[in-house]
Amino acid sequence: MSNLDNNPRSMAVTALTRVSNGAYSNLQLNQLIDQSDISPRDAGLLTTIVYGVIQHRMTIDYQLKPFIKHPQKVAPWVNILLQTAVYQMQYLERVPKRAIFNETIQIAKQRGHEGIRRFVTGVLHQMDRVGLPDLDEITDPLERQAITYSMPKWLIESLTNQLGAAKTQSILASINQPANQSVRVATDQISLLEAQQALRDEGYDFEASQVAADGLVLKGKPANQATLFKNGQLTIQDESAMLPAESMALQPNMMVLDACAAPGGKTVQLAGQLSAASRGQVVALDIHEHKVKLIKQNAKRMHVNDRVVAQALDARKVGDVFEDETFDAILVDAPCSGIGLIRRKPEIRYEKQLTDVQALAKIQLSILDAVAKKVKINGIITYSTCTILNQENRDVVKAFLAQHPDFESVRVNTKHDLKGSRTTDYLEIYPDDYDSDGFFVSQFKRVR
Fold it and tell me: Which member of 105, 127, 283, 386 is catalytic?
């Protein structure tokens, strides 16, 4: 085993190279950490560098550009290595510049050859002599905002048009902060107070969620090391993601459809409100067979598999399988652009285009159309997304209600009465509101 195998900076280059080829950052990090013998401290540095480079990539590339004369001749991994160096220099104040330079040059030498070592050394020393470009010198305001916050122009323009300049600026300033580690207590199995005491006894530092009633925000130790997690009494879930199921306020005997369910986080939350003895059940659908397995695994882990039936089915084809008025309540947590998850999945910002958003809005509406007749009269459809763009949220709601006069909008209520003074029935959560994921929740009641 070479000494690069457990070097967090070298491992960061490996992870970022894989992410640039289409892999998910969180999965790559988990895999690399699991396969190595690095200390928790080094694992923390690795995670910080990987997420940091992805979050600030446009800024870093802008700052690197003057120092790389022929970018087409630079191997992708070498460019990524230099990105990691710039990130550490700019954003990790406690890391000495000497350590950054020495490690970066050593990695260049060991992973490449003498020519690459000389090139990397030259770039680092020139940056040190000349200094990095000043972002304030970018004259175009939109370009400056895009480079400063590492956000595509189309996304900044869309948010500015929809929310105004001040709210957009607030969102941009928040999205490159670290994501909170939040968990949901399975209160069908253990009370919130008992769970808090158990976490305290294991040395966890936490605070109650201001967003979701059963949520906690943990600090320090990873949540998956807790005994409660291992026992299936605790699950890792963003605070905002808990709101759709919480707002549905189910009765124990209800028949519920989770139309777009994988990997099953909301499925198990819904099932926790039901009773197998009262014949309550969640039918959980996903288009992919391998994802249906994840739902089943999740249901088993959280001890609700007696209330969950998971099957592979495109939600747009529910009419082929289910009779009209089969369900008391339906959740459509629709496939979306995921723009609300940027803090947690930073690469999303570079992968999506406005055309993707428009195409997804059509899919979202077609799923709602398909499930509309499957809910009973006086039953409620809950529609949610993890995005913050009107095209996939307000506009879809407006289109659905216009096409379905047998439904009316009803107010989304949460246990903490979030945004209680809002004038809309739907609930919009932005990343800067509570330092949670961006989310949208709306509800429609079938009146005839």
Answer: 386
CA-wise closest residue to 90 among 57, 67, 123, 120: 57
Q: What pLDDT, in 10s, does the model give residues 45-73?
A: 999 999 999 999 999 999 999 999 999 99
Residue whose pair of structure tokens reads 């195409």 in the numeric block: 359
- Is 386 among the catalytic positions? yes
* Strand pairing category for 439-446 and 375-385: antiparallel
Q: 153-163 vs 354-371: helix axis angle to the nearest 10?
A: 60
Q: Is 102 helix (H, G, I), strand (E, B) or coil?
A: helix
Q: Amino acid identity of 380?
A: I
- Whole-model pTM: value is 0.94
Dump pLDDT digits (tens) for 228-244.
999 999 999 999 999 99
The Cα 281–Cα 257 span in angstroms is 8
Strand (E) positions, 15-135? Answer: none
For the chain, the residue count is 448
CA distances from 277 to 134, 270, 274 (A): 65, 16, 9
Closest CA to 436 of 386, 390, 395: 386
225-233 long-range contacts (CB < 8 A, ≥24 apart) are 226/198, 226/199, 226/202, 227/198, 227/202, 228/185, 228/190, 228/195, 228/198, 228/199, 229/183, 232/186, 232/189, 232/301, 232/302, 232/303, 233/185, 233/186, 233/189, 233/190, 233/195
Asked if the peptide bond before residue 263 counts as cis, ω within 30 degrees of 0, the response is: yes
Rounded distance between C-alpha atoms, residue 367 and residue 448, angstroms: 20
C-alpha pair distances (Å), 11 with each of 79, 81, 88, 91? 15, 10, 15, 19
Q: Which helix (H) or strand (E) holds 155?
A: helix 153-163
From CA 70, how far away is CA 68, in angstroms rounded?
A: 6
Cβ atoms of 406 and 400 within 8 Å: the answer is no
Nearest Cα to Cα of residue 445 among 402, 392, 404: 404
Do 257 and 327 touch, CB atoms closer than 8 A?
yes
